[in-house]
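User: Okay, second chain of the day. Same drill as before: sequence in, structure tokens out.
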Amino acid sequence: MLSARINGIGWVTVAGCGQGRLRQDFVLGAGELPQLSRADVFAQPDRRFGRMDPFSRLGLAGIAFALRDAGLEVWQQKRAVGLIAATAYGCLGTDCDYFDTVIPGGGALASPQLFAYTLSNTFLGEAAIRFGLTGGGMVVSTASAPGLAPLGLALESLSWGEEECLVAGICDLNPPAGVPEVPGVPPGAVFLVLERADRENVSSYGELQKASGGGYFLDGSPVGDVAELVARCLLTKNRD
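Assistant: Same drill. Structure tokens below.
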């Protein structure tokens, strides 16, 4: 059985932004996401954040809140921390916006700013730069609700010794106009910081486990999806 400790949780959902140790309410459901500004995420001015597309802002914010919750936001030396995200729509909205600048002028007025964000993994690079992360980075595109798959990939990476710490989760905006909705994919970003279970001095929400048959467990009890996992982690922490 693969396992790791959950050491940080951060999110942006229709209900707002949050971190687990701040004992904030967590709701992952349908609706409109908040329009994120730099001040919602970072205390200091950040021109890079202001240039980002909405998908990259969402993903970077979720990672920032998770690292902050785990006490890993501030750094002096680069860290071998990896990043894994799963998404159904990715940056498709940005792609559409970019081609709206390409088509009318036959490419003559194509936006270089939008072009920089026409890959779904761009925000992982932004996170790596801001937080000094040198581990691997991967975005998994899925045609269905990702469930706990990105966390499973993180558990595998930890078990192979590729990393000692990973930030893994889900990130999606609402689908752009004309794109069919994928059932079970609410808008939002939810990321968890996972560290190897054998590491010492880790104050955790509990131990996430994946059985050889594919089932997921939190401290030995079955868990079905990311929303349930986070809710149970927060319930456990609020009892401390």
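The CA atoms of residues 61 and 148 lie 20 Å apart.

User: Thanks, on to the next one.
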